[in-house]
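During the second year of the project, the team shifted from modelling isolated chains to modelling whole assemblies. The rationale, set out in the original proposal, was that interfaces cannot be judged from single-chain predictions alone. As a representative example for this report, we include one of the complexes processed in the last quarter. Its constituent sequences, exactly as entered into the pipeline, are reproduced here:
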Amino acid sequence: MNLFDKLDSEFLREVGDISRFTGRFFREASKPKQEWEEFINQCYWIGYKTLTLVGITAFIMGLVLTIQSRPTLVEFGAVSLLPSMVSVSLVREIAPVITALICAGKIGSGIGAELGSMRVTEQIDAMEVSGTNPFKYLVVTRVMASMLMVPLLSCLAIAISLYGGYLGVNIRGNVSWHLYWFQAYGALNYGDFIPSLVKTFFFGFAIGIVGCYKGYNSQKGTEGVGRSATTAVIVASLIVFILDLIAVQITDILGLT
Amino acid sequence: MEPIKPIIEVKHLNKSFGSNHVLRDFSMSVTPGENLVILGKSGSGKSVLIKCIINLMPPDSGEIIVLGQDVGELDQDQMDLLRADVGFLFQSNALYDSMTVRQNLEFPLRRHWSKQERALHAESAVLEALEDVGLSHTINMMPAELSGGMRKRIALARTLILKPKIILYDEPTTGLDPITAREISELILQVQEKYQATAIIISHDMNCIRMTSDRVIMLIDGKNYISDTYENLQLVSDPKVREFFD
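Output from the structure prediction step:
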Protein backbone atom coordinates (compact mmCIF):
# COMPACT_ATOMS: atom_id res chain seq x y z
CA MET A 1 0.00 0.00 0.00
CA ASN A 2 1.58 3.30 -1.05
CA LEU A 3 1.46 6.49 1.00
CA PHE A 4 -1.53 7.98 -0.86
CA ASP A 5 -3.58 4.79 -0.49
CA LYS A 6 -2.76 4.75 3.21
CA LEU A 7 -3.73 8.41 3.66
CA ASP A 8 -6.91 7.81 1.69
CA SER A 9 -7.93 4.82 3.77
CA GLU A 10 -7.13 6.64 7.04
CA PHE A 11 -9.09 9.70 5.90
CA LEU A 12 -12.09 7.61 4.83
CA ARG A 13 -12.01 5.63 8.09
CA GLU A 14 -11.95 8.89 10.04
CA VAL A 15 -14.89 10.25 8.03
CA GLY A 16 -16.79 7.00 8.64
CA ASP A 17 -16.06 7.07 12.37
CA ILE A 18 -17.07 10.69 12.82
CA SER A 19 -20.27 10.05 10.83
CA ARG A 20 -21.16 7.15 13.13
CA PHE A 21 -20.34 9.33 16.14
CA THR A 22 -22.62 12.07 14.78
CA GLY A 23 -25.38 9.50 14.18
CA ARG A 24 -25.05 8.32 17.77
CA PHE A 25 -25.31 11.93 18.95
CA PHE A 26 -28.68 12.32 17.23
CA ARG A 27 -29.92 8.98 18.60
CA GLU A 28 -28.88 9.80 22.16
CA ALA A 29 -30.10 13.41 21.95
CA SER A 30 -33.53 12.27 20.81
CA LYS A 31 -33.98 9.89 23.77
CA PRO A 32 -35.77 11.19 26.86
CA LYS A 33 -34.08 12.11 30.15
CA GLN A 34 -31.49 14.71 29.19
CA GLU A 35 -28.72 15.81 31.54
CA TRP A 36 -30.00 19.38 31.95
CA GLU A 37 -27.83 20.23 34.94
CA GLU A 38 -24.66 19.33 33.06
CA PHE A 39 -25.98 21.12 29.95
CA ILE A 40 -26.37 24.38 31.93
CA ASN A 41 -22.97 23.85 33.47
CA GLN A 42 -21.48 23.48 29.99
CA CYS A 43 -23.32 26.55 28.71
CA TYR A 44 -21.63 28.48 31.51
CA TRP A 45 -18.18 27.10 30.69
CA ILE A 46 -18.54 27.42 26.93
CA GLY A 47 -20.40 30.71 26.85
CA TYR A 48 -19.39 32.76 29.84
CA LYS A 49 -15.76 31.71 29.87
CA THR A 50 -15.33 32.58 26.16
CA LEU A 51 -17.14 35.89 26.44
CA THR A 52 -14.11 38.09 27.22
CA LEU A 53 -11.99 36.63 24.44
CA VAL A 54 -14.77 36.97 21.87
CA GLY A 55 -15.62 40.48 23.09
CA ILE A 56 -12.05 41.81 22.85
CA THR A 57 -11.46 40.18 19.45
CA ALA A 58 -14.76 41.50 18.09
CA PHE A 59 -14.00 45.04 19.24
CA ILE A 60 -10.56 45.02 17.62
CA MET A 61 -12.01 43.43 14.47
CA GLY A 62 -14.60 46.19 14.04
CA LEU A 63 -12.08 48.93 14.76
CA VAL A 64 -9.37 47.60 12.42
CA LEU A 65 -11.78 46.83 9.58
CA THR A 66 -13.12 50.41 9.71
CA ILE A 67 -9.68 52.02 9.87
CA GLN A 68 -8.35 49.91 6.98
CA SER A 69 -11.39 50.38 4.77
CA ARG A 70 -11.46 54.15 5.12
CA PRO A 71 -8.56 55.10 2.73
CA THR A 72 -10.08 53.12 -0.17
CA LEU A 73 -13.50 54.69 0.32
CA VAL A 74 -11.92 58.16 0.61
CA GLU A 75 -10.20 57.54 -2.74
CA PHE A 76 -13.58 56.94 -4.40
CA GLY A 77 -15.29 59.75 -2.52
CA ALA A 78 -17.57 57.27 -0.78
CA VAL A 79 -16.47 57.70 2.84
CA SER A 80 -20.08 58.20 3.88
CA LEU A 81 -20.69 54.55 3.00
CA LEU A 82 -18.16 53.41 5.61
CA PRO A 83 -20.69 52.46 8.36
CA SER A 84 -22.84 50.56 5.85
CA MET A 85 -19.92 48.67 4.35
CA VAL A 86 -18.45 47.76 7.72
CA SER A 87 -21.77 46.59 9.14
CA VAL A 88 -22.57 44.36 6.15
CA SER A 89 -19.08 42.79 6.26
CA LEU A 90 -19.22 42.22 9.99
CA VAL A 91 -22.74 40.82 10.15
CA ARG A 92 -22.59 38.59 7.10
CA GLU A 93 -19.15 37.15 7.37
CA ILE A 94 -16.42 38.44 9.62
CA ALA A 95 -18.03 38.34 13.07
CA PRO A 96 -19.59 34.85 12.73
CA VAL A 97 -16.49 33.27 11.18
CA ILE A 98 -13.98 34.86 13.56
CA THR A 99 -16.18 33.96 16.55
CA ALA A 100 -16.39 30.38 15.29
CA LEU A 101 -12.62 30.20 14.85
CA ILE A 102 -12.04 31.53 18.37
CA CYS A 103 -14.53 28.97 19.69
CA ALA A 104 -12.88 26.21 17.64
CA GLY A 105 -9.60 27.11 19.36
CA LYS A 106 -10.90 27.53 22.87
CA ILE A 107 -13.92 25.25 23.09
CA GLY A 108 -12.73 22.58 20.63
CA SER A 109 -9.35 22.15 22.30
CA GLY A 110 -10.89 22.37 25.78
CA ILE A 111 -13.44 19.64 25.10
CA GLY A 112 -10.87 17.50 23.25
CA ALA A 113 -8.38 17.70 26.12
CA GLU A 114 -10.97 17.22 28.87
CA LEU A 115 -12.65 14.18 27.35
CA GLY A 116 -9.29 12.82 26.21
CA SER A 117 -7.88 12.91 29.72
CA MET A 118 -11.11 11.39 31.05
CA ARG A 119 -10.75 8.57 28.53
CA VAL A 120 -7.13 7.74 29.32
CA THR A 121 -7.68 7.90 33.10
CA GLU A 122 -10.69 5.54 32.82
CA GLN A 123 -13.13 8.20 34.09
CA ILE A 124 -15.44 7.54 31.13
CA ASP A 125 -15.39 3.81 31.95
CA ALA A 126 -16.13 4.64 35.60
CA MET A 127 -19.12 6.67 34.50
CA GLU A 128 -20.41 3.75 32.47
CA VAL A 129 -19.90 1.33 35.36
CA SER A 130 -21.87 3.64 37.66
CA GLY A 131 -24.86 3.33 35.31
CA THR A 132 -24.60 6.79 33.73
CA ASN A 133 -24.53 6.92 29.94
CA PRO A 134 -21.23 8.79 29.39
CA PHE A 135 -22.11 9.66 25.81
CA LYS A 136 -25.25 11.43 26.91
CA TYR A 137 -23.66 13.04 29.94
CA LEU A 138 -20.46 14.21 28.26
CA VAL A 139 -21.05 14.44 24.52
CA VAL A 140 -24.72 15.39 24.09
CA THR A 141 -24.51 18.15 26.71
CA ARG A 142 -21.34 19.66 25.28
CA VAL A 143 -22.47 19.60 21.66
CA MET A 144 -25.86 21.10 22.55
CA ALA A 145 -24.24 23.79 24.69
CA SER A 146 -21.87 24.60 21.85
CA MET A 147 -24.80 24.78 19.38
CA LEU A 148 -26.56 27.26 21.66
CA MET A 149 -23.64 29.37 22.80
CA VAL A 150 -21.74 29.91 19.52
CA PRO A 151 -24.72 31.73 17.89
CA LEU A 152 -25.18 33.82 21.07
CA LEU A 153 -21.49 34.68 21.15
CA SER A 154 -21.65 35.54 17.47
CA CYS A 155 -24.57 37.96 18.08
CA LEU A 156 -22.58 39.56 20.84
CA ALA A 157 -19.51 39.75 18.60
CA ILE A 158 -21.58 41.54 15.94
CA ALA A 159 -22.80 44.13 18.46
CA ILE A 160 -19.35 44.76 19.94
CA SER A 161 -17.61 44.87 16.55
CA LEU A 162 -20.16 47.41 15.31
CA TYR A 163 -19.33 49.54 18.33
CA GLY A 164 -15.64 49.12 17.47
CA GLY A 165 -16.55 50.29 13.98
CA TYR A 166 -18.21 53.40 15.42
CA LEU A 167 -15.02 54.31 17.28
CA GLY A 168 -13.01 53.56 14.12
CA VAL A 169 -15.15 55.94 12.05
CA ASN A 170 -14.64 58.68 14.62
CA ILE A 171 -10.85 58.47 14.74
CA ARG A 172 -10.61 60.51 11.55
CA GLY A 173 -14.16 61.68 11.13
CA ASN A 174 -16.95 63.12 13.17
CA VAL A 175 -20.03 60.96 12.94
CA SER A 176 -22.68 61.05 15.63
CA TRP A 177 -23.77 57.88 17.40
CA HIS A 178 -27.27 58.26 15.97
CA LEU A 179 -26.10 58.73 12.37
CA TYR A 180 -23.65 55.80 12.58
CA TRP A 181 -26.34 53.39 13.77
CA PHE A 182 -28.84 54.74 11.29
CA GLN A 183 -26.43 54.08 8.43
CA ALA A 184 -25.13 50.76 9.76
CA TYR A 185 -28.58 49.28 10.37
CA GLY A 186 -30.05 50.88 7.27
CA ALA A 187 -27.72 48.78 5.14
CA LEU A 188 -28.82 45.54 6.79
CA ASN A 189 -31.89 43.40 6.28
CA TYR A 190 -33.14 39.99 7.43
CA GLY A 191 -31.27 38.36 4.54
CA ASP A 192 -28.04 39.42 6.26
CA PHE A 193 -28.95 38.44 9.81
CA ILE A 194 -30.74 35.12 9.40
CA PRO A 195 -28.19 33.21 7.25
CA SER A 196 -25.46 34.55 9.55
CA LEU A 197 -27.28 33.23 12.62
CA VAL A 198 -28.15 29.90 11.01
CA LYS A 199 -24.60 29.18 9.98
CA THR A 200 -23.23 29.88 13.46
CA PHE A 201 -25.60 27.20 14.75
CA PHE A 202 -23.89 24.72 12.39
CA PHE A 203 -20.46 26.09 13.35
CA GLY A 204 -21.32 25.39 17.00
CA PHE A 205 -22.45 21.88 16.15
CA ALA A 206 -19.25 21.17 14.19
CA ILE A 207 -16.99 22.55 16.94
CA GLY A 208 -18.77 20.53 19.63
CA ILE A 209 -18.97 17.28 17.72
CA VAL A 210 -15.33 17.37 16.53
CA GLY A 211 -14.01 18.24 20.01
CA CYS A 212 -16.08 15.48 21.59
CA TYR A 213 -15.20 12.92 18.89
CA LYS A 214 -11.47 13.55 19.22
CA GLY A 215 -11.54 13.52 23.03
CA TYR A 216 -13.94 10.60 23.44
CA ASN A 217 -11.82 8.41 21.17
CA SER A 218 -8.49 9.53 22.55
CA GLN A 219 -5.82 6.85 22.85
CA LYS A 220 -2.16 6.38 23.76
CA GLY A 221 -2.04 8.15 27.12
CA THR A 222 -1.07 11.76 27.66
CA GLU A 223 0.43 12.02 24.18
CA GLY A 224 -2.96 11.08 22.79
CA VAL A 225 -4.68 13.76 24.88
CA GLY A 226 -2.43 16.46 23.40
CA ARG A 227 -3.03 15.12 19.92
CA SER A 228 -6.80 15.07 20.49
CA ALA A 229 -6.81 18.71 21.56
CA THR A 230 -4.67 19.83 18.62
CA THR A 231 -6.50 17.88 15.93
CA ALA A 232 -9.86 19.00 17.35
CA VAL A 233 -8.86 22.63 16.70
CA ILE A 234 -7.47 21.95 13.23
CA VAL A 235 -10.40 19.84 12.03
CA ALA A 236 -13.05 22.11 13.60
CA SER A 237 -11.45 25.23 12.02
CA LEU A 238 -11.33 23.53 8.63
CA ILE A 239 -14.96 22.46 8.91
CA VAL A 240 -15.95 26.03 9.87
CA PHE A 241 -14.46 27.30 6.58
CA ILE A 242 -16.08 24.51 4.56
CA LEU A 243 -19.47 25.19 6.17
CA ASP A 244 -19.03 28.90 5.53
CA LEU A 245 -18.33 28.21 1.87
CA ILE A 246 -21.46 26.06 1.63
CA ALA A 247 -23.53 28.68 3.49
CA VAL A 248 -22.40 31.43 1.11
CA GLN A 249 -23.34 29.28 -1.91
CA ILE A 250 -26.76 28.51 -0.46
CA THR A 251 -27.55 32.14 0.40
CA ASP A 252 -26.39 33.12 -3.08
CA ILE A 253 -28.67 30.51 -4.71
CA LEU A 254 -31.57 31.62 -2.52
CA GLY A 255 -30.92 35.24 -3.55
CA LEU A 256 -30.33 36.41 0.01
CA THR A 257 -27.08 38.22 -0.81
CA MET B 1 -26.72 -31.30 49.88
CA GLU B 2 -27.30 -28.98 46.94
CA PRO B 3 -24.14 -27.42 45.48
CA ILE B 4 -23.72 -23.64 46.02
CA LYS B 5 -24.80 -21.72 42.92
CA PRO B 6 -21.96 -19.53 41.53
CA ILE B 7 -22.48 -15.77 41.65
CA ILE B 8 -20.25 -15.31 38.59
CA GLU B 9 -19.68 -17.87 35.85
CA VAL B 10 -17.41 -17.39 32.86
CA LYS B 11 -17.63 -20.05 30.16
CA HIS B 12 -15.27 -20.52 27.20
CA LEU B 13 -14.37 -16.83 26.96
CA ASN B 14 -12.27 -15.66 24.01
CA LYS B 15 -10.94 -12.16 23.45
CA SER B 16 -8.38 -10.99 20.89
CA PHE B 17 -6.89 -7.65 19.90
CA GLY B 18 -5.84 -8.14 16.28
CA SER B 19 -3.49 -11.11 16.24
CA ASN B 20 -2.98 -10.94 20.04
CA HIS B 21 -5.20 -13.64 21.58
CA VAL B 22 -5.53 -12.45 25.18
CA LEU B 23 -8.13 -14.89 26.48
CA ARG B 24 -8.42 -18.39 25.01
CA ASP B 25 -11.34 -20.53 26.06
CA PHE B 26 -11.14 -19.12 29.59
CA SER B 27 -13.62 -20.50 32.11
CA MET B 28 -14.09 -19.95 35.84
CA SER B 29 -16.77 -19.62 38.50
CA VAL B 30 -16.95 -17.65 41.73
CA THR B 31 -19.08 -18.62 44.72
CA PRO B 32 -20.92 -16.03 46.86
CA GLY B 33 -18.76 -14.39 49.52
CA GLU B 34 -15.53 -15.66 47.98
CA ASN B 35 -12.41 -13.52 47.54
CA LEU B 36 -10.98 -14.75 44.27
CA VAL B 37 -7.64 -13.47 43.05
CA ILE B 38 -6.67 -13.61 39.37
CA LEU B 39 -2.89 -13.76 39.15
CA GLY B 40 -0.94 -13.34 35.95
CA LYS B 41 1.85 -11.41 34.28
CA SER B 42 1.34 -7.86 33.03
CA GLY B 43 -0.51 -7.93 29.73
CA SER B 44 -1.84 -11.44 30.33
CA GLY B 45 -5.47 -10.30 30.06
CA LYS B 46 -6.48 -10.01 33.72
CA SER B 47 -7.97 -6.53 33.39
CA VAL B 48 -9.59 -7.51 30.08
CA LEU B 49 -11.30 -10.39 31.89
CA ILE B 50 -12.97 -8.21 34.53
CA LYS B 51 -13.86 -5.55 31.95
CA CYS B 52 -15.64 -8.31 30.00
CA ILE B 53 -17.47 -9.35 33.20
CA ILE B 54 -18.87 -5.81 33.66
CA ASN B 55 -19.39 -5.47 29.88
CA LEU B 56 -16.99 -2.59 29.44
CA MET B 57 -15.43 -4.71 26.70
CA PRO B 58 -17.44 -7.16 24.64
CA PRO B 59 -15.86 -10.63 24.42
CA ASP B 60 -15.34 -12.24 20.99
CA SER B 61 -17.15 -15.37 22.16
CA GLY B 62 -18.15 -17.15 25.33
CA GLU B 63 -20.73 -16.69 28.03
CA ILE B 64 -20.63 -14.58 31.21
CA ILE B 65 -23.31 -15.09 33.85
CA VAL B 66 -23.39 -12.54 36.69
CA LEU B 67 -26.01 -12.83 39.46
CA GLY B 68 -27.90 -15.29 37.27
CA GLN B 69 -28.03 -12.98 34.24
CA ASP B 70 -26.27 -13.53 30.91
CA VAL B 71 -24.34 -10.28 30.45
CA GLY B 72 -24.28 -10.63 26.64
CA GLU B 73 -28.08 -10.81 26.47
CA LEU B 74 -28.84 -7.69 28.55
CA ASP B 75 -29.97 -4.41 27.03
CA GLN B 76 -28.54 -1.10 28.26
CA ASP B 77 -31.13 -0.53 31.01
CA GLN B 78 -30.82 -4.09 32.33
CA MET B 79 -27.03 -3.77 32.26
CA ASP B 80 -27.21 -0.50 34.21
CA LEU B 81 -29.36 -2.19 36.85
CA LEU B 82 -26.92 -5.09 37.09
CA ARG B 83 -24.04 -2.63 37.45
CA ALA B 84 -25.64 -1.26 40.61
CA ASP B 85 -24.82 -4.63 42.19
CA VAL B 86 -21.28 -4.79 40.80
CA GLY B 87 -18.65 -2.31 42.00
CA PHE B 88 -15.45 -1.73 40.05
CA LEU B 89 -12.27 -0.29 41.54
CA PHE B 90 -10.16 0.97 38.66
CA GLN B 91 -6.40 0.64 38.57
CA SER B 92 -6.09 4.40 37.95
CA ASN B 93 -8.86 5.09 40.55
CA ALA B 94 -10.78 7.01 37.84
CA LEU B 95 -11.94 9.73 40.23
CA TYR B 96 -13.65 12.61 38.40
CA ASP B 97 -11.07 15.40 38.47
CA SER B 98 -13.57 18.22 38.19
CA MET B 99 -15.68 17.06 41.14
CA THR B 100 -15.15 17.12 44.89
CA VAL B 101 -14.95 13.89 46.88
CA ARG B 102 -18.61 14.35 47.86
CA GLN B 103 -19.69 14.79 44.23
CA ASN B 104 -17.60 11.79 43.20
CA LEU B 105 -19.39 9.62 45.74
CA GLU B 106 -22.81 11.01 44.91
CA PHE B 107 -22.35 10.42 41.19
CA PRO B 108 -23.37 6.70 41.13
CA LEU B 109 -26.52 7.60 43.10
CA ARG B 110 -27.81 9.80 40.26
CA ARG B 111 -28.81 6.82 38.16
CA HIS B 112 -29.92 4.40 40.84
CA TRP B 113 -31.66 6.60 43.44
CA SER B 114 -34.64 8.90 42.93
CA LYS B 115 -34.25 12.65 43.50
CA GLN B 116 -36.20 12.31 46.74
CA GLU B 117 -34.02 9.43 47.98
CA ARG B 118 -30.92 11.43 47.15
CA ALA B 119 -32.20 14.47 49.02
CA LEU B 120 -32.96 12.37 52.09
CA HIS B 121 -30.17 9.80 52.21
CA ALA B 122 -27.24 10.85 49.97
CA GLU B 123 -25.43 12.77 52.72
CA SER B 124 -25.53 9.87 55.19
CA ALA B 125 -24.57 7.34 52.48
CA VAL B 126 -21.56 9.45 51.49
CA LEU B 127 -20.46 9.83 55.11
CA GLU B 128 -20.88 6.12 55.81
CA ALA B 129 -18.80 5.15 52.75
CA LEU B 130 -16.11 7.67 53.73
CA GLU B 131 -16.07 6.40 57.31
CA ASP B 132 -15.61 2.85 55.97
CA VAL B 133 -12.38 3.94 54.33
CA GLY B 134 -11.37 6.28 57.19
CA LEU B 135 -11.44 9.51 55.19
CA SER B 136 -14.50 11.46 56.38
CA HIS B 137 -12.47 14.68 56.58
CA THR B 138 -11.80 14.72 52.82
CA ILE B 139 -15.45 15.17 51.86
CA ASN B 140 -15.01 18.65 50.37
CA MET B 141 -11.55 18.12 48.91
CA MET B 142 -10.70 17.76 45.22
CA PRO B 143 -9.02 14.55 43.98
CA ALA B 144 -5.88 16.54 43.08
CA GLU B 145 -5.42 17.37 46.79
CA LEU B 146 -5.26 13.70 47.81
CA SER B 147 -2.31 11.32 47.99
CA GLY B 148 -2.20 8.09 45.95
CA GLY B 149 -3.37 5.93 48.84
CA MET B 150 -6.16 8.37 49.73
CA ARG B 151 -7.38 8.41 46.14
CA LYS B 152 -7.50 4.62 46.17
CA ARG B 153 -9.57 4.69 49.36
CA ILE B 154 -11.94 7.33 47.94
CA ALA B 155 -12.32 5.26 44.77
CA LEU B 156 -13.20 2.29 46.99
CA ALA B 157 -15.68 4.42 48.93
CA ARG B 158 -17.34 5.38 45.62
CA THR B 159 -17.55 1.69 44.77
CA LEU B 160 -19.13 0.91 48.15
CA ILE B 161 -21.78 3.61 48.12
CA LEU B 162 -24.31 1.43 46.30
CA LYS B 163 -23.48 -1.50 48.62
CA PRO B 164 -22.62 -3.86 45.75
CA LYS B 165 -22.91 -7.64 45.97
CA ILE B 166 -19.75 -8.06 43.88
CA ILE B 167 -16.64 -5.91 43.85
CA LEU B 168 -14.06 -6.14 41.05
CA TYR B 169 -10.62 -4.78 42.05
CA ASP B 170 -8.24 -3.98 39.20
CA GLU B 171 -4.74 -4.09 40.67
CA PRO B 172 -5.68 -2.30 43.91
CA THR B 173 -2.14 -1.99 45.26
CA THR B 174 -0.21 -1.16 42.09
CA GLY B 175 1.83 2.03 42.38
CA LEU B 176 1.48 2.26 46.16
CA ASP B 177 4.26 2.05 48.74
CA PRO B 178 4.39 -1.25 50.74
CA ILE B 179 2.76 0.26 53.86
CA THR B 180 -0.14 1.83 51.95
CA ALA B 181 -0.48 -1.34 49.86
CA ARG B 182 -0.84 -3.34 53.07
CA GLU B 183 -3.45 -0.88 54.37
CA ILE B 184 -5.44 -1.26 51.14
CA SER B 185 -5.26 -5.06 51.42
CA GLU B 186 -6.56 -4.83 55.01
CA LEU B 187 -9.30 -2.51 53.82
CA ILE B 188 -10.38 -5.05 51.19
CA LEU B 189 -10.77 -7.62 53.98
CA GLN B 190 -12.71 -5.19 56.20
CA VAL B 191 -15.03 -4.34 53.33
CA GLN B 192 -15.64 -7.99 52.60
CA GLU B 193 -16.44 -8.62 56.23
CA LYS B 194 -18.84 -5.67 56.52
CA TYR B 195 -20.63 -5.93 53.18
CA GLN B 196 -20.35 -9.70 52.69
CA ALA B 197 -19.49 -8.91 49.08
CA THR B 198 -17.92 -11.32 46.65
CA ALA B 199 -14.63 -10.04 45.27
CA ILE B 200 -12.49 -10.65 42.22
CA ILE B 201 -9.08 -9.12 42.76
CA ILE B 202 -6.70 -8.70 39.85
CA SER B 203 -3.18 -8.52 41.17
CA HIS B 204 0.42 -9.58 40.90
CA ASP B 205 1.30 -8.21 44.34
CA MET B 206 2.06 -11.42 46.26
CA ASN B 207 1.56 -9.81 49.68
CA CYS B 208 -1.88 -8.56 48.71
CA ILE B 209 -2.76 -11.97 47.28
CA ARG B 210 -1.58 -13.79 50.38
CA MET B 211 -3.61 -11.51 52.63
CA THR B 212 -6.84 -11.26 50.66
CA SER B 213 -7.35 -14.45 48.68
CA ASP B 214 -9.60 -17.38 49.47
CA ARG B 215 -8.61 -18.88 46.12
CA VAL B 216 -6.20 -17.94 43.35
CA ILE B 217 -6.64 -18.52 39.61
CA MET B 218 -3.47 -18.26 37.55
CA LEU B 219 -4.11 -16.75 34.14
CA ILE B 220 -1.35 -18.06 31.90
CA ASP B 221 -1.40 -18.09 28.07
CA GLY B 222 -4.98 -16.79 28.15
CA LYS B 223 -6.25 -19.84 30.04
CA ASN B 224 -7.32 -20.72 33.57
CA TYR B 225 -4.02 -22.54 34.11
CA ILE B 226 -4.50 -23.59 37.72
CA SER B 227 -6.88 -22.75 40.55
CA ASP B 228 -6.18 -23.35 44.23
CA THR B 229 -5.55 -21.66 47.56
CA TYR B 230 -2.46 -19.48 47.92
CA GLU B 231 -0.92 -21.94 50.36
CA ASN B 232 -1.40 -24.92 48.04
CA LEU B 233 -0.09 -23.04 45.01
CA GLN B 234 3.12 -22.30 46.89
CA LEU B 235 3.78 -26.04 46.92
CA VAL B 236 3.21 -26.60 43.19
CA SER B 237 6.38 -27.52 41.29
CA ASP B 238 5.22 -26.46 37.79
CA PRO B 239 7.83 -23.93 36.56
CA LYS B 240 5.15 -21.54 35.18
CA VAL B 241 3.58 -21.38 38.64
CA ARG B 242 6.88 -21.25 40.50
CA GLU B 243 7.89 -18.14 38.56
CA PHE B 244 5.43 -16.15 40.67
CA PHE B 245 6.51 -17.54 44.04
CA ASP B 246 10.29 -17.74 43.70
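Residues 35-253 of chain A form one domain. The radius of gyration of chain A is 21 Å.
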